[in-house]
Design a protein that fits this description.
The complex is a heterodimer of chains A (115) and B (112). Chain A contains no helices and eleven strands. The mean pLDDT of chain A is 93. Chain A has 115 residues and is mainly beta. Chain A has a domain at 17-94: Sandwich (Immunoglobulin-like), CATH 2.60.40.10. Classes of the chains: A mainly beta (115), B mainly beta (112).
């Protein structure tokens, strides 16, 4: 069964350092999502791509976070500089089509700890 | 503004007991999805409800969408230890093209 791939699975970084996460969605899925999940809470959407275009980044802290999906396939989420409050699970998800109630398939996530 | 509450936050049951979690909105929802997240895992899609009054079943799980499309429930009959995890409702507002918003989740603990 096809899965969403993410790396690394765990990342420990010091505050003010840069960190990057990678996501490879299920083949053929046009829509890709990055979520942040703080322990004990539901996932919060950071950015949504339709192919290579950003369709929603309203919750992305743009002063320090950036995301790209250059060829409309895999994607990178970057934080620079990292802050203590960025410690969380970063989840990537993909779905067939945006704008329709299609289910989202989540990857295993990257657990970020900022010290 | 819109408020969506998911209750309860936590429930501990004995194996074999039933369990229900509710998602209640102050405004009409376009559709609602339910996800399960096992401890240490990632959310996994369970079901999607679109129609007013819709009821769907998956083995021991029953999902309902209210007539006014403002509330939804997930009911598990005769819980098993494999049901342990956090159950999230997630919704799209009417008129919003695609953004999915997740509830705060209900954590279910099942003991023998």
């Amino acid at each position: 069964e096809a899965e969403v791939a993410q790396s690394p699975r765990y990342k420990i970084t010091e505050k003010s350092q840069a960190v990057a996460f990678w996501c490879d969605p299920i083949s053929g899925h046009a829509t890709l999502y990055w979520y942040r999940q703080i322990l004990g809470q539901g996932p919060e959407l950071l950015v949504q791509f339709q192919d290579e275009s950003v369709v929603d980044d309203s919750q992305l802290p743009k002063d320090r976070f950036s995301a790209e999906r250059l060829k409309g396939v895999d994607s990178t989420l970057k934080i620079q500089p990292a802050e203590l409050g960025d410690s969380a699970m970063y989840l990537c998800a993909s779905s067939l089509v945006s704008g329709l109630p299609y289910e989202q398939y989540f990857g295993p996530g990257t657990r970020l700890t900022v010290t | 503004g819109q408020q969506v509450m998911q209750i309860p936050q936590y429930q501990h049951v004995q194996e074999g007991e039933d369990f229900t979690t509710y998602c209640n909105s102050s405004t009409t929802l376009s559709n609602i999805q339910w996800y399960k997240q096992r401890p240490g895992g990632h959310p996994v899609f369970l079901i999607q409800l679109v129609k007013s009054g819709e009821v769907k079943k998956q083995k021991r799980l029953t999902f309902q969408f209210g007539e006014a499309k403002k509330n939804s429930s997930l009911h598990i009959t005769a819980t098993q230890t494999t049901d342990v995890g956090t159950y999230f409702c997630a919704w799209r507002n009417t008129g919003t093209a695609s953004k999915l918003t997740f509830g705060t989740g209900t954590r279910l603990q099942v003991t023998l």
